[in-house]
Inverse folding.
């Protein structure tokens, strides 16, 4: 439509499904940030779902074994100091 000033007014429609997907995606990113830690080597998000602090990256090209508590490569100190920390 053309207004009195001669300018064209564009009507913008919100794609409700796209908006919903964007909200879910943002919520998912927040959850990932809160419930995971990045692998110290490859940075893929890793979720700890119980057990001890000994983590192993699931990425086939990485497989780093590391400590959830201190983020270091898994070592004897981690094993002795905080194997079962909560």
């Amino acid at each position: 439509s053309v207004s009195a000033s001669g300018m064209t007014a564009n009507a913008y429609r919100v794609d409700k499904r796209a908006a919903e997907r964007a909200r879910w995606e943002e919520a998912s990113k927040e959850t990932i940030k809160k419930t995971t830690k990045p692998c110290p080597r490859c940075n893929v998000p890793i979720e700890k779902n119980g057990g001890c602090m000994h983590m192993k990256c699931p990425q086939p090209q990485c497989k780093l074994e590391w400590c959830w508590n201190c983020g270091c490569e898994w070592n004897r100190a981690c094993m002795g100091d905080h194997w079962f920390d909560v």
Observations:
- The mean pLDDT is 84.
